[in-house]
């Protein structure tokens, strides 16, 4: 027999939830609250970026997050084993062509490229992070080449070639081209031998004055991402030739990011750089590229059942709502598509939430452009916290693809002064046991 259900809107604090809720003639009572206490703040992040899906290149000056410079370290391999450039080869040019597959920000702002030859070797088996560096020479082989990314230009005529893909082409120094041409033939016999002679490049962009953009590059697309050496033999100057170098999934490469957060907004600097964590109650920040994550804690969950005797609190649904600030909606830096939420098992380690294992349709974490907010369903997580089955150490919130996406998000905190606030919406039942 199903007992009588009583429906009510509960606005009590979580500490007193359940007080005087059980009527004498009810087996189940169902309630709703959106006033659960939330303590939160943003913190600096670091992520592994080796062999990421995309390389990132460019610079932005964000009015909230400050300056970001994105670049990558990468090896190359010869396209043909045992290459010989013949007698008296003459280098015409050396060009780094990059397959452009996306962007974030304002691509009309001029970028200044730098390319440095590696003096230490990359190791495929090593882990590299967003802050990792590898030693390079001091010569800028790109010589500060300036360009604007053109992600919507899909046809390029390059000599006799037609390229049907957005690309970035960065001319490199004649000296580097001469070095590659004059290597002994044995250097081209195997990729590992070649990498001993040419360890690779670090490619990055200089800080911009305002706005700017980060370009997403498919490094392992061997049709469009190429280190192209144009040359001819002295005896046949009218017979131009080309030799390509590639990056493959078997080569080592990783993204590197430099952030100058001191150039961000005063509120951002105070919370992230000066340790004023209480400001997270008003505004919270997320950024990829080994940038910024946010910690979220519901401190009073273990007290929700303190006043219940002979009853059990069952969480029917719990949704964490993360509304965007007006500053984000008015910006050229648009909201990310997908977010991630994991639980803290210690100060530094995390675990997947049980709700995540139910699938993306249940867990969510997708930006809703009509509501201008993100939501996560954390029903099972909340039940575990209330039942004391896991330590209540909080949640870590971030953006998907932090190693290879350029994006950010600004959230109205639970005590924001304007607009919709961050909140936890919980529908729960009090069940007679």
Task: Give an account of the 3D structure.
The chain has 433 residues and is mainly β. It is 9% helix and 41% strand. It has helices at 174-181, 191-197, 266-272, 326-329, 360-363, 379-386; strands at residues 5-9, 28-33, 39-44, 55-62, 66-74, 77-78, 89-105, 111-117, 145-147, 156-158, 161-163, 167-172, 201-205, 211-218, 226-233, 236-246, 253-260, 283-287, 292-297, 311-323, 339-344, 350-352, 364-368, 373-377, 395-399, 408-412, 423-432. Strands 4, 5, 6, 7, 8, 9, 12, 13, 14, 15, 16 and 17 form a 12-stranded antiparallel beta sheet that branches. A hairpin with a 2-residue loop joins strand 10 and strand 11. The longest helix has 8 residues, at 174-181. The radius of gyration is 27 Å and the shape is elongated. The two termini are 15 Å apart.
Q: Measured on Cα atoms, how large is the radius of gyration?
A: 27 Å
Based on Cα principal axes, name the global outline.
elongated
Q: Cα distance, first to last residue?
A: 15 Å
- What structural class results from the helix and strand content? mainly beta
- The share of residues in extended strands comes to 35-45%
Q: Tally the helices.
A: 6
> Major β-sheet, in short?
12 strands, antiparallel
Share of residues in helices? under 10%
Unreliable parts: 1-26
Based on DSSP secondary structure assignment, what is the total number of beta strands?
27
What would the average pLDDT be, to the nearest integer? 90
């Amino acid at each position: 027999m199903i007992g009588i259900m009583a429906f009510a809107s509960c606005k009590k604090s979580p500490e007193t939830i359940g007080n005087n809720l059980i009527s004498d003639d009810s087996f189940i009572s169902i309630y709703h609250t959106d006033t659960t206490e939330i303590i939160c703040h943003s913190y600096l992040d670091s992520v592994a970026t080796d062999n990421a899906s995309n390389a990132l290149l460019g610079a932005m000056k964000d009015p909230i997050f400050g300056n970001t410079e994105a670049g990558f370290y990468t090896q190359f391999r010869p396209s043909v084993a045992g290459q010989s450039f013949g007698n008296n080869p003459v280098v015409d040019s050396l060009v780094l062509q990059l397959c452009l597959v996306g962007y974030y920000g304002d691509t009309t702002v001029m970028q200044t490229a730098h390319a440095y030859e590696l003096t230490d070797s990359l190791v495929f088996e090593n882990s590299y992070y967003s802050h990792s560096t590898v030693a390079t020479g001091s010569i800028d082989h790109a010589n500060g080449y300036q360009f604007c990314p053109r992600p919507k230009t899909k046809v390029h005529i390059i000599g006799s070639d037609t390229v049907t893909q957005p690309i970035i082409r960065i001319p490199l120094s004649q000296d580097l081209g001469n070095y590659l041409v004059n290597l002994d033939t044995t250097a081209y016999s195997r990729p590992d031998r070649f990498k001993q002679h040419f360890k690779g490049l670090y490619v990055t962009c200089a800080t911009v004055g305002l706005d700017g953009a980060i370009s997403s590059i498919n490094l392992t697309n061997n049709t469009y991402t190429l280190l192209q050496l144009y040359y001819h033999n002295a005896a046949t100057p009218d017979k131009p030739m080309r030799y390509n170098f590639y990056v493959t999934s078997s080569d080592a490469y990783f993204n590197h990011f430099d952030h100058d957060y001191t150039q961000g907004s005063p509120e951002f600097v105070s919370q992230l750089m000066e340790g004023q964590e209480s400001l997270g109650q008003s505004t919270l920040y997320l950024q990829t590229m080994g940038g910024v994550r946010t910690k979220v804690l519901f401190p009073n969950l273990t007290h929700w059942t303190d006043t219940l005797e002979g009853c059990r609190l069952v969480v029917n649904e719990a949704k964490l709502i993360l509304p965007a600030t007006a500053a984000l909606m008015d910006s050229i830096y648009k909201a990310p598509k997908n977010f991630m939420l994991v639980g803290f098992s210690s100060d530094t380690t995390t675990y997947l939430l049980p709700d995540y294992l139910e699938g993306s349709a249940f867990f969510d974490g997708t930006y809703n452009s009509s509501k201008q907010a993100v939501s996560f369903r954390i029903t099972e997580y909340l039940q575990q916290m209330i039942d004391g089955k896991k330590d209540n150490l909080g949640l870590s919130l971030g953006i998907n693809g932090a190693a290879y996406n350029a994006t950010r998000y600004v959230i109205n905190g639970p005590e924001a002064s304007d607009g919709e606030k961050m909140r936890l919406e919980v529908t729960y039942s009090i069940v007679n046991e």
